[in-house]
């Protein structure tokens, strides 16, 4: 351990102990690189964040910011010679305002804690990434996180009104507003949201809240063919059903769930749809949804307005990833396609899985076309690693062909940086580099992440 | 007329005739400067826009982009020696997709035309600026326009999914996506939306649509005191009533309306609230709203689920500006405050009006705190002009004091450029300049507009 690492960082220094640093050195992604940082810093205030940024600038060190490390694209992986700035000590809910329906929070607040705190004021913060009980609001903002609730409500970017952020030069900038509307100047808030630590370090977030919704009504529908499930999604969209959640799972995922925890799905089931409405008239919304599923060829349709029964119906969705994880090492992908092309994507994934000799389960948010093909492989077998990566690339390419995007909610990070230049045109790639240069001329904030490489 | 102006512009050249150019040389703002452009260009395609931008760069001319010229902050005013790029020939609705609920449109499409076109597909485009039947989607995007419908739905920025834009160097960039979600790279779409022609020229917009809502139920409530109206707004917010519209008008505005077109408001009425819900259960939402207004001290409350009657109740809101305009020259201001501070703002405006000897009517969007104090003055009397500007500055300062913003929906333009540096901190001002420099290093796109001056 180098003494130079210990001095000068002030009270923000958490550790330079290799074991501690190792536990902060990577997120939950696969196929991304990480290295040991030179120090883990955990500032307790905006001013301490600014000091860390100034000190890093003075030493010429890269800065990687980490929330809870639940990311899936390598955006919080420490880099060789970088410092690792953890936001976990910045964990105060600064204020909750029921009249303006906003909360002001520090970045290290766990998303689930914020959701619980605002509920006590009769308010609701909808974004609920899969890791909602461990991920942080700052990480959600930096990566543009979303979740199950996003069909009707939108994701993190739709809820962030304003930010405070530390910039590469150690200055602190406030963006956005507290009011419901405001158009004073460029929308730098939206620019920072989703910039994955490459433009600044979020030190405070102002999020809007909505009134606490009604208790939900839930529906589960099974389909004998993928095409019928696709028709149902189309009919639900066209009818304008107000669903707070609409999830799809394919045969592979269902079969993995049945192996782990038999829920009684027929082996002939090609896909299921799970829907929920928290509308004041949720019962009639879900009844309409159930009718449309039946008319589209659903085999079984169950509806419940009982909270506990609803949770049971949703259980299958919660088991999707744990069930697939049991089958081997996994690479959880994240693409988004137009809702009308979900079936095309799943069919293509089935073809790719067969061709590569892999198990790939698809589940995801049918309400917005955001699918999570989950590739199961054997990390210990180099040929299987290569096959997994090949499948990953083929799925990403197919999503683009279908008019989709390479990432719906997990972000670009290190994992998809090579793909970003394929989705964007040359002029947009150039604009990314110019924006990065404007905010971070010496390329110290999360270098090599999120923006297209040369 | 200089021959040099006529050659080289290609088919995009509309006119160099002074009379024609004069009609394109300014928007509807007051107290902003404008000059005669050197030419009015009206390209018919993205490629023609790019050619105009390249030719302007070659000649070293500034480019001011204009939609329908309905702006209220001088953002589309021609500048000395600039060309004026009008988008009115780019007026195609490229596609409407009922499955993905998106429309792709050229910037010159009239907002009202888009709204009518998507209704035929059972879809709804909510943003409805006051000028909805004459303003353009491109202008709405460039200025971040909103309108009456924004309490529940949000404004233009909440509906733009992707853009195509011509940049200062004549290249064309695509940003954003067509899918419901997508987080690939920086949110350059939001950066361009609201940038008032200073970063690029919007050549195509992809907007999301929502299902056509239910027929609305409407409420009008009158209040004897401003405080009672403020309490009602607070109660409506806290109760989470789902209102698609919630407008407030003050005594001065009501009195101007009564003078023009007597609707029978009592002279003791200090304020009215107008509410509308287009929820599936709009009747119960508005009944709840009416009960809350009565409990807050409303004097008369009228509710109707009849379309024609609802229109009659809304008539007062539509007459607000025309009625105030009859009283003299007018300066329509636009500030946004937290909803709980609307009454404080209106009270302050009353004080300012008394002090300056001016009539200032306040009406606006109570659902989001966006108020439009409208200053009536006599353009022919220099002292009254000065008083009007003084009142304008005092109102803007008061909005900031109350935790609000200098502009809720009209944009910064030329009118409020001097104020932007007061709302933003030094670091944010610097970030604005750096972003501008990154996109437009030679400062040719709407120079001197929207971003803080030195």
TrEMBL record, chains A, B:
Keyword Flavoprotein: yes
A Gene Ontology molecular function term of the record: FAD binding
Domain FAD-binding PCMH-type: 33-212
Record-linked PROSITE patterns: FAD_PCMH (PS51387)
Record's keyword terms, sorted: FAD, Flavoprotein, Oxidoreductase
Cofactor(s) the protein requires to work: FAD
InterPro entries: FAD-bd_oxidored_4_C, FAD-bd_PCMH, FAD-bd_PCMH-like_sf, FAD-bd_PCMH_sub2, FAD-linked_Oxase-like_C, FAD-linked_OxidoTrans_Type4, Oxid_FAD_bind_N, Vanillyl_alc_oxidase_C-sub2
Classification via PANTHER family: GLYCOLATE OXIDASE SUBUNIT GLCD
Recorded family membership: Belongs to the FAD-binding oxidoreductase/transferase type 4 family.
Name by which UniProt lists this protein: FAD-binding protein
Native source organism of the sequence: Aeromicrobium phoceense
């Amino acid at each position: 351990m180098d003494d130079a690492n210990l001095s000068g960082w002030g009270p923000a220094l958490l550790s330079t102990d290799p074991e501690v640093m190792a536990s902060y050195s990577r997120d939950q992604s696969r196929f991304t690189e990480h290295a040991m940082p030179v120090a883990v810093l955990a500032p307790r205030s905006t001013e301490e964040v600014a000091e860390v940024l100034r000190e890093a600038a003075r030493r010429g060190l890269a800065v990687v910011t980490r929330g809870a490390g639940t990311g899936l694209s390598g955006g919080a992986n420490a880099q060789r010679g970088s410092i690792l700035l953890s936001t976990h000590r910045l964990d105060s809910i600064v204020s909750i305002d029921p009249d303006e329906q906003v909360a002001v929070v520090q970045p290290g607040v766990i998303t689930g804690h914020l959701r619980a705190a605002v509920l006590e004021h009769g308010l609701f913060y909808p974004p609920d990434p899969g890791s909602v009980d461990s991920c942080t609001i700052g990480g959600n903002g930096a990566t543009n996180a979303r979740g199950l609730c996003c069909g009707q409500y939108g994701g993190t970017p739709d809820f962030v009104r304003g930010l405070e952020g530390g910039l590469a030069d150690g200055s602190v900038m406030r963006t956005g507003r507290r009011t419901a509307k405001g158009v004073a100047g460029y929308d730098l808030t939206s620019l920072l949201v989703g910039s994955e630590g490459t433009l600044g370090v979020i030190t405070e977030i102002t999020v809007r809240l909505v009134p606490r919704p009604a208790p939900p009504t839930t529906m589960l529908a099974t389909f004998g063919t993928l095409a019928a499930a696709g028709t149902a999604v189309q009919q639900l969209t066209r009818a304008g059903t107000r669903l707070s959640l609409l999830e799809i799972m394919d045969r592979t995922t269902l079969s993995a769930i049945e192996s782990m925890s038999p829920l009684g799905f027929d082996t002939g089931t090609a896909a299921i749809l799970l829907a929920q409405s928290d509308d004041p008239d949720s019962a009639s919304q879900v009844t309409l949804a159930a009718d449309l599923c039946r008319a589209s060829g659903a085999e079984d349709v169950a509806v419940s307005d009982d909270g506990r029964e609803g949770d049971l119906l949703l259980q299958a969705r919660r088991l999707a990833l744990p069930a697939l994880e049991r089958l081997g090492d996994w690479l959880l992908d994240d693409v988004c396609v137009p809702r009308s092309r979900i079936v095309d994507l799943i069919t293509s994934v089935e073809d790719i899985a067969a061709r590569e000799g892999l198990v790939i389960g698809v589940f995801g948010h049918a309400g917005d076309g955001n699918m999570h093909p989950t590739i199961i492989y054997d990390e210990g077998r180099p040929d299987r690693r290569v096959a997994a990566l090949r499948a990953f690339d083929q799925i990403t390419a197919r999503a683009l062909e279908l008019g989709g995007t390479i990432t719906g909610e997990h972000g670009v990070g290190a994992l998809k940086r090579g793909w970003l230049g394929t989705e964007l045109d040359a002029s947009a790639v150039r604009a990314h580099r110019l924006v990065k240069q404007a905010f971070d001329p010496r390329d110290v904030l999360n270098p090599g992440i999120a923006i297209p490489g040369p």
